[in-house]
Amino acid sequence: GVANPRAVTSGLYTEQGVEITSGVTSGEIIAIAGVHTLVKGQQVTPQLASSALAHSSTESMRP
């Protein structure tokens, strides 16, 4: 895949993660870890969320 940054609106922050209330549609593949290092057009390899979350935490998702 290819990285395509865009603005999203966040909702609730919980122990399980962050609610995204707008900016993505159902079925889209999104980055949940390491997003601060991505640039537009960068080649990326999607992974299951359980693999990505093993290297992240909800603390890193806070604004």
Descriptive account of the structure:
- The protein is mainly beta.
- The protein has one domain.
- The protein is 8% helix and 19% strand.
- A two-stranded antiparallel ribbon has the order 1-2.
- A hairpin with a 2-residue loop joins strand 1 and strand 2.
- The longest helix is centred in the last third of the chain and has 5 residues.
- The N and C termini lie far apart (26 Å).
The structural domain count equals 1
Number of helices: 1
Q: How much of the polypeptide forms β-strand, as a percent range?
A: 15-25%
- Can you give the helix content as a percent range? under 10%
Number of strands: 2
- Read across the widest sheet, the strand sequence of neighbours is 1-2
Describe the global form: globular
Mean pLDDT score, rounded? 83
Order of helices and strands: EEH
Structural class: mainly beta
The main pleated sheet reads as: 2 strands, antiparallel
Summarize the structure.
The chain has one domain (9-56).
What's the structural blueprint in terms of helices and strands?
Blueprint: E1 9-14, E2 17-22, H1 49-53
Antiparallel strand pairs: 1-2
Give me some keywords for this one.
disordered C terminus; mainly beta; single chain
